[in-house]
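One thing: mind reviewing this one?
=====
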Amino acid sequence: MGFPIDETMILALFPVMFLGMWLLIVTLLGRMSGWNKLQNRFSDRPDENLMVMRAQSGAMGRLSSAKVNFSGCLRFDVCRTGLRVSMWKIFGPFQHPFFVPWGQIHVSDASLFKFKRQRLGFGTPESGFLIIADKTAKIIATQSPIKLL
């Protein structure tokens, strides 16, 4: 005889199982993207926001070949001394914002076919990167106190 499973038990266990799987997946994506390494190296700090860009997209990864896409869930705060990157808490409950000083951001072209993109490398030596649309990079560059592009 097996353990009897009825509909009420399934209804009671489903939210717990869903939440557990969600937390596991977002934690793994945070590690695969290199977010944890970046948040440890570039801890967040207060600075005056010059511009806030919500619902942005980008791809991050520790390796160029393995990237995690964050579609519409990133936020960029362009500040006087650097760039703050954060994401919606529902997609990254354990991923905290990180703040990269302007001097630690290295921009290079990451275009693919007709899709114009820019790669922002963070740190020297590089701790991680973020690939964003060319249009977004140009907006950030216009507000940055140093020449990015």
Summary: The beta strands are 49-61, 68-79, 82-87, 98-101, 105-109, 117-122, 128-133.
